[in-house]
Amino acid sequence: MLYLGSFVLGGVGAWAISRWGPVLGVLDRANHRSSYEGVVPKGGGIGILAVLFLASWVLPLPTLFWFGVGVLSLLSLYGDRREIPPKVRLSVQLVAGVVALMGLFQWDDRSYWIYPLLPFFAVYVVGTANYYNFMDGINGIAGFWGSGVG
């Protein structure tokens, strides 16, 4: 049921953004680095956030985990509408990453020796996410791989 619910919520989120993206002002205009032309809605991650909340409720994941990931998602959604200064965006991402990782470590019942390593894990997670997002912005790699073509 979790898989079916995740599939449905992800699809509904993508549909909602494609339908109401222009009304909400979450549009991406192609530039010289884009793999598409024209104007397309962005913010389809809202369906992923809905799936996260469903999974957090069913599994049950610690509040710290879904709170950190929720803050990251809302920051990204806000960033789809308005420009966020890179230092502010990165600072919030790092703090939210540490909070989410603390939640994961609590859920997995890790020893306390791992907590001093949280900043390093957060830099890795946030860096990897930003790198992937940058690559996707250049060549649409997420859409390419997600389509089954890759």
Provide a descriptive summary of the structure in words.
α2 (45-58) runs antiparallel to α3 (63-81), α3 (63-81) packs antiparallel against α4 (86-107) and α4 crosses α5. The protein has 150 residues and is mainly alpha-helical. It has helices at 2-24, 45-58, 63-81, 86-107, 118-139, 141-146; strands at 27-29, 39-41. The protein is globular and about 50 Å long. The longest helix is centred in the N-terminal third of the chain and has 23 residues, at 2-24. The protein is built from 6 helices and 2 strands, in the order αββααααα. The chain has a two-stranded antiparallel sheet.
- DSSP helical segment count: 6
Based on secondary structure, the structural category is: mainly alpha
* Beta-strand residue fraction: under 5%
| Secondary-structure element order, N to C | HEEHHHHH
Unreliable stretches (pLDDT < 50, length at least 5) are 144-150
